């Protein structure tokens, strides 16, 4: 019915049992009931009255109310994210207004009101707030919708009376529920697509019989062309219930037409821009630059993977844009950018020791969640400092795990296409494509050493024995000089925590995946629940490749400038060839020196 306020109210009159969930015909609202009147032979879901409620212009609305013995929830479905005003209307129709002089006047209905999980009104008493029974009262609440749904929870906490006016009479009671957005909603891309398809259907019905043949031909061609797109859109419709969808125009406006000044990074799939949505949220927009006809499946998989996991140490995905050839992901914006910029001095952040140790611990918790707690289980494949972002409180959040490959229990994976970054790759993954969660453990060990030392894992500007961080850390460890690895810019640090962190990092970077601890055990060692064991021996990938440079004997005294391999530390390699013959092994600790005189002897006089 339409109330005098101009609002169209939908009937919600399902006969809910003791544990029930019901979606209305319009699919805009759902209601959930939990509880049973144990002391009442005939359970009641509704409170009906022929009396006319006062203090309202639409008294017909108050002749029926939903009643629950314990917990009653209403869900607003498919809402556009943003601010809303929720209006709840009540009227105490269960108590007789003529019984004010009898014991029945002592009846009290008391319950709590929660909205979006937050307590908004404690010990709410309808008749007390309305000034009597059979009187209407409305409660308005301002709320913010961030995940496309609204939850209103009325909860009876055992207060008030239970036997007035009859045995087994208590619990929350509500007459109407209404939610109105405080902004002008816009149709999502998916909704526009559905509308467009319906329009075509209507046109097909009204076409004269004389052109049916032509319509069939056009429809056949259209159907063939759209078949793959429809399958893709069906996958996206399944995701729409969990994710917000943004139009290209929205994201273009948010990023000032993807202005270069708003560009904050270059990820594996394309550039990332800072933006501000119409509702005021700061976001990071990841614009895919790869050909969409080659990456649709990967894009849908990435959305599904990221939306399935939630953890305080993982970057949150707000939604996506799928419009034309545009494929974009919208993430939460992290104010302090990436960890590598913080620890390598590329911004003005100065991380003290407690902050550094906490970043290691929280990052380990995020990886432990991906490996052992999330469903599906996820291997990140590219754990590095630039993929760890810091929020305003310097709490780390792991990003860019949409490229991770999902795997089932008790399965190992041999990948012919290694994705990762030189310097952080585990030996078995870099050389043989053998991928398990222990590849992430290795990357974490390298990151922990970088946080501890304040320098990247490879730096050709340093003395030769310090160029490769892993090798230098092991040399110091073997000579009982481990604390020399600590960043000299730290004015003070906890010696015990530093040694513990170093021992954990050396365990994580062992050559054999079996010798590396799972991330849950890493967390336990960092918090001190488990004492980290000493890494027994230097990894074979350091000892076997640490050879003597035989070319140095050919150098002349006046020829001191060798040709060295390029430092590839800062290349963001997302696809690394796995053939040993196709490039120099990224884990080789020392460059080969070749003099100009050697080259002259080898190639002769230019022939």
UniProtKB/TrEMBL annotation:
It catalyses: L-threonyl-[protein] + ATP = O-phospho-L-threonyl-[protein] + ADP + H(+); L-seryl-[protein] + ATP = O-phospho-L-seryl-[protein] + ADP + H(+). Its EC number is 2.7.11.1. It is found in: Membrane. PANTHER family: LEUCINE-RICH REPEAT-CONTAINING PROTEIN DDB_G0281931-RELATED, OS08G0203700 PROTEIN. The lineage of its organism: Eukaryota, Viridiplantae, Streptophyta, Embryophyta, Tracheophyta. The chain crosses the membrane at residues 200-222. It is a single-pass type I membrane protein. Keywords: ATP-binding, Glycoprotein, Kinase, Membrane, Nucleotide-binding, Phosphoprotein, Receptor, Repeat, Serine/threonine-protein kinase, Signal, Transferase, Transmembrane, Transmembrane helix. It is an enzyme of class 2 (transferase). One of its GO terms (cellular component) is plasma membrane. It comes from Ficus carica. Coiled coil: none annotated. The keyword DNA repair does not apply. This is non-specific serine/threonine protein kinase.
């Amino acid at each position: 019915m339409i109330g005098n306020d101009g609002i169209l109210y939908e009937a919600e009159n399902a006969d809910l049992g003791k544990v029930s969930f019901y979606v209305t015909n319009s699919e805009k609202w759902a209601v959930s009931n939990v509880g049973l009147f144990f002391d009442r032979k005939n359970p009641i879901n509704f409170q009906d009255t022929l009396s006319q409620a006062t203090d309202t212009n639409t008294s017909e609305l108050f002749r029926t109310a939903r009643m629950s013995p314990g917990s009653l929830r209403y869900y607003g479905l498919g809402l556009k994210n943003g601010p809303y005003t929720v209006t709840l209307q009540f009227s105490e129709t269960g108590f007789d207004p003529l019984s004010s002089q009898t014991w029945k006047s002592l009846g009290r209905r008391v319950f709590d009101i929660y909205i979006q999980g937050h307590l908004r009104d404690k010990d709410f008493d309808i008749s007390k707030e309305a000034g009597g029974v059979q009187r209407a009262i409305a409660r308005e609440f301002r709320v913010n919708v961030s995940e496309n749904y609204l939850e209103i929870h009325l909860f009876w906490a055992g207060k008030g009376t239970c036997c007035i006016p009859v045995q087994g009479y208590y619990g929350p009671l509500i007459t109407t529920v209404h939610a109105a957005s405080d902004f002008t909603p816009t149709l999502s891309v998916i909704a526009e697509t559905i509308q467009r398809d319906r329009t075509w259907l209507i046109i097909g019905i009204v076409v004269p019989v004389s052109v049916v043949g032509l319509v069939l031909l056009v429809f056949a061609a259209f159907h063939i062309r759209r078949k793959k797109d429809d399958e893709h859109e069906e996958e996206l419709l399944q995701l729409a219930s969990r994710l917000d969808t943004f139009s290209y125009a929205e994201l273009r406006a948010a990023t000032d037409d993807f202005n270069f000044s708003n560009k904050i990074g270059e990820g594996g799939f394309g550039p990332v821009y800072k933006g501000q949505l119409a509702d005021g949220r700061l976001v990071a927009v990841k614009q895919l630059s790869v050909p969409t006809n080659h990456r649709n499946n990967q894009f849908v998989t990435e959305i599904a993977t990221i939306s399935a996991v939630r953890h305080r140490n993982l970057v949150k995905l707000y939604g996506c844009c799928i419009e034309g050839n545009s494929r974009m992901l919208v993430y939460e914006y992290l104010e302090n950018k990436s960890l590598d910029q913080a620890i390598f001095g590329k911004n003005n952040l100065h991380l003290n020791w407690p902050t550094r140790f906490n970043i290691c611990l929280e990052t380990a918790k995020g990886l432990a969640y991906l490996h052992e707690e999330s469903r599906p289980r996820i291997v990140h494949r590219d754990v590095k400092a630039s993929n760890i972002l810091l929020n305003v409180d310097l709490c780390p959040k792991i990003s860019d795990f949409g490229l991770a490959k999902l795997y089932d229990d008790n399965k190992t994976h041999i990948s012919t296409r290694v994705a990762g970054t030189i310097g952080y790759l585990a030996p078995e993954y870099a050389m043989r494509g053998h991928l398990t969660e222990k590849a992430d453990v290795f990357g974490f060990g390298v990151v922990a050493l970088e946080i501890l030392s304040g320098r990247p894992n490879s730096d050709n500007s340093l003395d030769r024995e310090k160029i490769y961080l892993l090798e230098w850390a092991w040399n110091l460890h073997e000579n009982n000089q481990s604390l020399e690895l600590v960043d000299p810019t730290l004015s003070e640090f906890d010696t015990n925590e530093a040694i513990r962190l170093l021992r954990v990092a050396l365990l994580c970077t062992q050559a054999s995946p079996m010798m590396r601890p799972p991330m849950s055990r890493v967390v336990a060692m960092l918090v001190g629940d488990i004492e980290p064991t000493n890494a027994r021996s230097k990894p074979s990938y350091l000892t076997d490749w640490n050879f003597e440079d035989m070319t140095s004997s050919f150098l002349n005294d006046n020829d001191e400038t060798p040709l060295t391999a390029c430092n590839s530390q800062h290349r963001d390699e997302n696809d690394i060839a796995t053939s040993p013959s196709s490039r120099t092994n990224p884990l080789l600790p020392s460059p080969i020196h070749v003099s100009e005189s050697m080259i002259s002897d080898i190639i002769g006089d230019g022939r």
